[in-house]
Amino acid sequence: MSREVKIFSGRNFQYLSRDIARVYGIELSKLNTQQFSDGEIQPEIQESVRGEYVFIISSTNAPAENLMEMLLVIDAARRASAHYITAVIPYFGYARQDRKDRPRVAIGSKLVANLIVAAGANRVMTMDLHAPQIQGFFDIPVDHLDASYIFIPYLKSLGIDENICFASPDVGSTNRARTYAKHFNGDMVICDKQRKRANEIAAMTVIGDVSGKDVVLVDDICDTARTLSSAAKLLMEKGAKSVRAVCTHPVLSGQAIETIEASALIELVVCDTIPYSRKSDKIKRLPVADLFATAIRNVHENLSITSLFIPKP
């Protein structure tokens, strides 16, 4: 029996969901979300999903209503007898709360994982988790896509392969930077960051030589942009020829845009996993629709998605 694919979208992710559905070759399925005067929301699936493969697209970035809407749509699809429900979460919010690093704090990413499973999802598809081990918080399969599949072809198009050097803006992103360095057979350095508190840097030092290099900072999230700005300034002071950054998720909170524009960065390259309306000549946004549409097709047809994790050298 052939089962159809139905793609639904959270209200704030129509821009991405329409592109994914278009690339896949179908129309976005009908979902109406009613909002009551007290702020409560009630999604209603407006077509049959009985026995079908349902993919629900919504990142879980702020506001928390994005997460709540996704959970309600998953529950609605389960109660409507969908055969298989996949939560497509381009940006998994709360991923930075992945451990109990202080007394009396929540492990937010584990809680969110529990909620998604409890709502009725059979599978999760996401991209560049802040910590890959978060996959273990789920008791269902997780397809963890890699933005290097998108960023590497872009970096190759710049023609800086012979002089390229990759930098981790902090110790936590070392593995990401090393992956890119291996692919390009290039050098890697680390910016060792010490924090006073969240979103506030006390000191930063560079481990490695960047003299005369075209440096690419690699990170998963750009939030306030202070880390990238500080790292770019330090790398230029250490003799770098140029500094640009690739960051998967453009959270860009507070004065992030102004910080980027005033920084030593040539450009910040991001994916469109999170919507943002403010523009900057220094920010280039690359689409993820093709990657997610291909992953959705492979899941539906029971094909491997390993080839979508990173391009071959």
Report on this structure.
The radius of gyration is 20 Å and the shape is globular. It folds into 2 domains: 162 residues, Rossmann fold; 139 residues, Rossmann fold, CATH 3.40.50.2020. Helix 2 links the parallel strand 4 and strand 5. The chain is of the alpha/beta class and 313 residues long. Helix 1 crosses helix 8 and helix 2 runs parallel beside helix 3.
Rg, please? 20 Å
Average pLDDT for all residues:
92
Please name the CATH topology of the largest domain.
Rossmann fold
* DSSP helix fraction: 25-40%
Encode the helix/strand succession as letters: EHEEEHEHEEHEHEEEHEHEEH
The CATH top-level class label of the largest domain? Alpha Beta
Tell me what portion of residues adopts beta-strand conformation: 25-35%
Biggest sheet strand order reads 10-9-8-11-12-13-14
Number of helices: 8
Low-pLDDT windows of residues: none
